[in-house]
Amino acid sequence: MRRFSSELGRSKVLMSRTFFKSTLIACTALLAACDGPHEQAGEKADAAAGAQQGPFDSGPSESIGEAQDRVEEDQARAVDARADAAEAKADQARETAEQKADALEKQADAIRDAGKQSAETLDKQAEAIRGKK
Fold first, then answer.
1. Which positions ≥6 away from 55 have C-beta within 8 Å?
2. Where in the sequence is the domain holding 56, given as residue range(s)?
3. Do the domain assignments include residue 114?
4. Which residues of 88-117 are buried (b: 16+ CB within 10 A; e: fewer)?
5. Which residue intervals make up region (Disordered) (predicted)?
6. Cα angle 98, 104, 107; round to 5
7. Coil, strand, or helix at residue 51?
8. Is residue 59 part of a domain?
9. Nearest C-alpha neighbor of 131 from the set 116, 65, 39, 123
10. For the chain, how many structural domains are there in total?
11. Furthest CA-CA distance within the chain
């Protein structure tokens, strides 16, 4: 019984080591998939130069590549932010123009109405003048 128990214990240890190794490999692969193009190139350069230290350590080229990737991401975000700001400004300009156009249309309608009333008054005066003949 003891022998079975110790063999079971060993198999659990082996299984847990295997699980740990496979998990470590999967995590490393997952982290590598998150790397940007400069970081990946730097990692390859470090590996070729023998500068790679371990699965979680970065060599100098990889670190530089990671920084370059971050700079490019930040620049892309800045460009997007400027574009968003320009779009917001364009939307505001359109809205302002619409408001001004609406106000001008109301003003034109008021001028037309005043002109019609004035014309009607003058027409009535003309009829009154003709009617007195």
1. 24, 28
2. 35-102
3. no
4. eeeeeeeeeeeeeeeeeeeeeeeeeeeeee
5. 38-133
6. 145
7. coil
8. yes
9. 123
10. 1
11. 138
Per residue in 100-129, pLDDT tens? 999 999 999 999 999 999 999 999 999 999
Query: Is 126 domain-assigned?
Result: no
Q: In this predicted model, what pLDDT tens digit does every residue of 23-82 receive, in sequence order?
A: 656 655 555 557 788 777 777 776 777 765 666 667 787 788 888 989 999 999 999 999
Q: Is residue 51 part of a domain?
A: yes
- Dist CA 49 CA 47 (whole Å): 5
**71-77 CB contacts, 8 Å cutoff, 24+ apart:** 72/36, 72/38, 73/36
**Distance, C-alpha 47 to centroid of its chain:** 34
Task: Give the number of C-alpha atoms closer than 13 A to the C-alpha of residue 58, restricted to the C-beta side.
Answer: 17
CA pair distance 57, 41, nearest whole angstrom: 15
- Collapsing DSSP states into helix, strand and coil, what is residue 58? coil
Asked whether the whole model's pTM tops 0.85, one would answer: no
Residue 133 has pLDDT above 80, yes or no: no
- Kindly report the backbone phi and psi dihedral angles of residue 59, in degrees, each rounded to the nearest multiple of 5, phi listed first: -80, 175
